[in-house]
Design goal:
With 285 residues, the protein is mainly alpha-helical. The chain contains 9 helices and 8 strands. The N and C termini lie far apart (97 Å).
């Protein structure tokens, strides 16, 4: 005699035995297509698909997977990956995304068109892999730019006269140079004290020339500006952009046929414009 029968015979009320259900036949998951044992006859999702999206709106139309191109039944209207592509991306360590694939982009390395995995990617997979293999750090970020490029000569010809190119003293691009040197991202920012130190050195050379010294007598002190700028940058006193400004102008002057005129009538007005426009941006430490 079973325990249940013994209790009934002793007059003890026993809850009715639950109705036995017949085993539900295996079904095919509408999400991944795999065969599974449904807990209820109306269940259409396996446990894995159900856990990812337990509340799929009824009547969701079939969609085309943005990964493999196959037709699949999305769990949500905004899903764009089939279960296989979703699982493979998650297993590879990349973040599965149901967003529509972005537009094609041009690789910054080889110039070919490629499909970026993220909107900010700028390298195709081949260029990314080759840079990493070469030991350089692959980067999709735009390279930090230096100061704007200006003409090699300070002067333009007007008949027999040499006139200063207006770009060297115009707000555009000189004010842009000053902003680059003093912006918050510059390490360190150019201060008025550092700018005056270099400018006063050039003023002293200008004074010596006006007092009658030849260019040959002051040339060495002028060329030293490049070394001073390099040392100051390495010591953390001036930003890279100001060092570039000094080096490029030393090169302009020394490559001119008339170096004295290039210094007095070209570089000095250019430096004065930089200090003038930069006064609004430069601050002492």
């Amino acid at each position: 005699m079973s325990m249940r029968e013994a209790l009934i015979k002793a007059g003890i009320e026993v809850p009715a035995e639950p109705e036995r259900r017949e085993a539900t036949a295996a079904a095919q998951c509408s999400g991944c297509g795999k065969s599974f044992q449904p807990a209820q006859p109306n269940h259409r999702l396996c446990a894995d698909c159900h856990s990812r999206s337990p509340a799929r709106p009824a009547g969701t139309a079939a969609a085309q997977c943005s990964g493999c191109g196959k037709s699949f039944q999305p769990m949500q209207p905004n899903h764009r990956l089939c279960s296989d592509c979703f699982s493979s991306r998650r297993a590879s360590g990349s973040r599965p995304s149901d967003r529509p694939a972005g537009a094609a982009a041009q690789c910054n390395g080889c110039g070919k068109s490629f499909q970026p995995m993220q909107p900010n990617h700028r390298l195709c997979s081949d260029c990314f892999s080759s840079q990493r293999a070469s030991g350089s750090r692959p980067s999709d970020r735009p390279r930090r730019r230096g100061i704007p490029e200006l003409p090699d000569s300070y002067f333009v010809t007007d008949g027999d006269n040499l006139c200063l190119e207006t770009k060297f003293v115009s707000k555009e691009p000189v004010d842009g140079m000053a902003r680059l040197m003093t912006r918050s991202g510059a390490q360190p920012r150019l201060t008025s004290g550092q700018a005056r130190r270099f400018f006063n050195h050039c003023r002293d050379i200008e004074r010596r020339l006006n007092d009658g010294e030849s260019w040959e007598q002051v040339a060495a002190d002028f060329v030293k500006l490049s070394a001073f700028a390099q040392y100051s940058e390495s010591s953390g006193n001036i930003p890279r952009e100001f060092r570039q400004f000094i080096e490029r102008n030393v090169e302009r002057v020394t490559s001119s046929t008339d170096q004295r005129a290039a210094f007095l009538r070209g570089f000095m007005p250019h430096f004065e414009a930089l200090v003038g426009f930069g006064a609004a941006h430069m601050r002492d430490r």
